[in-house]
Input
Amino acid sequence: MKIPAKLFIPTALLLVLTLLSSCRSEEPKKAEQNYLRGELPVQEGMVVFNQNCASCHNFNTTEIGPNLAGITEAMDKEWIKRFIQNPQQVIENGDERAVAQFEKFGVYMPSFKYLKENELENLLAFIHKFSEGEKKNTSNRTGALINPIETPIPDSEFILSIEDFTTIPPSSDKAPDTRINTLRALPTSEGERLFIADLRGKIYEITSESPVVYLDVKNQLEGFIDQPGLGSGLGSFAFHPDFENNGLLYTTHTEPSETKVADFAVPEGAKSRLQWVLSEWKSDSPNEQTYERKRRELVRVDMVSQIHGFQELTFNPNSKPNSPDYGLLYLGVGDGGAALAGYPELCGNSTHIWGSVLRIDPLGTNSKNGKYGIPKDNPFVGTVGLGEIWCTGFRNPHRITWDISGSDKMFISNIGQHSVEEVNLGVKGAHYGWPFREGSFVFDVNANPEMVYRPSEQDLAADFVPPVIQYDHDEGNAVSGGFVYAGSQIPSLRNTYLFGDIPRGTLFSAPLSQIENGQQAKVEKVRLEINHNPSELIDIRPNERVDLRFGQNSSGEMFLFTKSNGKVYRIVDYKRKTASSAN
Output
C-alpha cells in the first residue's frame, strides 16, 4: 500500500485509536458478525498494521499509543470507519465522542480517504481478531510481538518456470472443484507410475492419456467422511517400498467420532470430534491399473477437533533393504487442536500421540493392539513415553520429506498458529517446542494465542530444537513443505530446498548447504513463470486460497499443484532474471 508523503500514518492512527479506545460504549457490540474472519483478510490487515501502526500500538499494554485490546467490541464498526476516513468531518458534525477527544488533544487528524475499502476492512479484521485474542490472556503476559520477524524476505535472482502437466477431474459440483492433497511416485521394474489423491476419497493414477481412478476409498468405507474441516477425508497415502512384490498400500482417512473404540482415545472429560484411521490395503495384482484390494485397520485415533489430524504418511525413500529404516512408516499426527481447546498437556508430550511424528513397522505385531510393530530403535522404547513416537513438539506436522540427492536430511514442515511458520530437520527423539514455542519464539497457551513472545535467557536454555527455516505472517499464513530438487533436468535448481505458502501460493527457496540445526538458513522469495508468462498462482483464481502443494518423482524432478482447482504443474526451469523479467 503506497503511503502519501504528507501523511505520517503511525502518528495519525495513534490519534484515531486513542479516540476509539477511550470512548467505549456502554453495551458491547456483536462484533463477530461485522468483521471479516478469513485467514487472508486478517493477514493482509496485519501487513497494513505492521507497516503503519505497530511502532505505536499493541494489544496488551499502553505504549506510545493506547492498548487496543477489546476496541472493536467497544466501538461500532461503521463509526470507526467513518472516523478513520474523515475525522474532521465527524468532529464538525458534532459527534459527542469525537468532539470530547478533539477538545482534549486540540488537533485534527488527517483524512484517510485514500485507503481502499478492502484495505480498511482487512485492517479492522486484523485489529478485531488480535484484540479479541487478548481477552484470553489470563497469564497477563506482556511483551507480545505482532511482527516477530521484522526483516522482510528478499527476492531471489531466479525465476521458477512451470508448465501445465495435467488436470484432475472435479470431485464435486460445489466449490472447490477438487481437493487434491498428495502426489506420489511409484518406481517399478516397468517404469515409474505417478499417483495423486483427492481428499474426497479417490486416488488417481496419472497416465499419458488422462488421470484414471486407481482406488476409490470413499466407496470402500461405510464410515468415510470428508467434512468438516479443510483436512478431513483421504488425508494421505503411501506405497510400501516393496509394493511390486507385496502389493501393500497405506492410507489415512477420517470417520465420525465413536465409530469404533479408538486405540488412542481422548481423556475422560474431553469429547472426540472425529477419528483418524490408518489402513493397509493389499493387492494380489500390484502392477494392474485397477486395484483389487483387501483392507485391514492398523490404528485409530480420537481428535478433540476437526483440525490438525493425521498429516504426512510416508516411507523414507533413501532406505534400502536390510537398512534399519527400510519398510518403516512415518506418520505426522497434529495436535488435533488440543493446545487451545483446553488440553495442552496432550501435545508436546512423549506420553501422548498428538503433536508427534510416529515411526512404526506396518508388518509388525508388538504394538498394544497387535496390528503393527514398534521398532526397537525408536527413541522412547523402554521409557514412559510411547514407543511409536520418533519426535514430538508439533502443532501440525504437515509434510515430511527427505533429500534424495545425497544428504539424507529429513524435513518436517510445521504449520504455526498465527505468527510463525517453520521447517525443521528431523532428529530422533527431538522436541520441537509446541505448545511452548512457535518457531523460535515463545508461545503461551495462557496468553494471547494470536501472538508470540521473545524468549528469555531461561527460555533459550530449554531443550527444544528450533527450526532451520522460519517466516512470519507478513510473508504467509501456512507453510507448504517442499523438497530438495534432486533431478537432472534443471542444474541451476540442484541443492535447493523449494517450498512455499499454502494459502497465498508464495514460493520460497533455501540453499541446502545452509540447512543445519543450530542456524537459520537464508530464505528468498521466488517469482513464477507459468507456461512462459510471468504470473503468480494467486492470479489464477483471485480472492481464493491457492492451496499450494509440492510433489517429487523418483528421479528428483518436481511438481507443484493447487488443491482447489485440480491443476498440476511440472517445474521445467530455474533461470536468472533478465532486465525485462525483473520489472
In short: Residues 117-133 form the longest helix (17 residues).
